[in-house]
Amino acid sequence: MDDLKAFHQQSRQKAEDHIKALTKEAETLRARLQKVEAALEGWKALSIALEQDPDQKPVLSVRRGFRRSEEEPPTDLSPAPLESIPQDPALPSIPPQAR
Length: 99
What we know:
The structure is a single chain. By secondary structure, the protein is mostly helical. It has one helix spanning 2-51.
């Protein structure tokens, strides 16, 4: 009976060791796959860029999930006026700046 328990314990330990090793290998392979996929996306972007006519606007990104805004960026980059910032009643009030 002791031999059977020892065999059972050894088999269980061997299975746990294999599970740990294979789990670690799977994590390593997932990380490697992410790097390969990122490199592949970069090469695809380069290929698309090289296929375009030189007169066309360049494509900024071909990665999944990138959404280019159709709106023009704002041209007025001045800071927002201080009057529009809500005041905290615990802080002393600051008079608006003279314009």
